[in-house]
Amino acid sequence: MVHILASIGFSLVAIASMTLVVVMLAASREAFVQALGVGRAPLEHSPRHPVRVRTAGRWQAAQSATAQPQRAAA
Q1: Could you tell me the CA-to-CA distances from 68 to 32, 65, 71 in Å, in that order?
Q2: Which end of the chain is more exposed for a tag (fewer CB within 10 A), N or C?
């Protein structure tokens, strides 16, 4: 009988402490969200600008045959 009462008492204490933790976390939810940087405000995107891409010239292009394979030093 004592074991049953002790078990019920322990369960009540555990449930009460879990409830307290959840209530405290819910109360400071905004602080956690702000600290993590997970705000609900939409992100501001910078306007996109057109970009010109130039291909490499004849003398700039590296050929795969020019790269000499090297062996690792033992």
Answers
A1: 54, 7, 10
A2: C
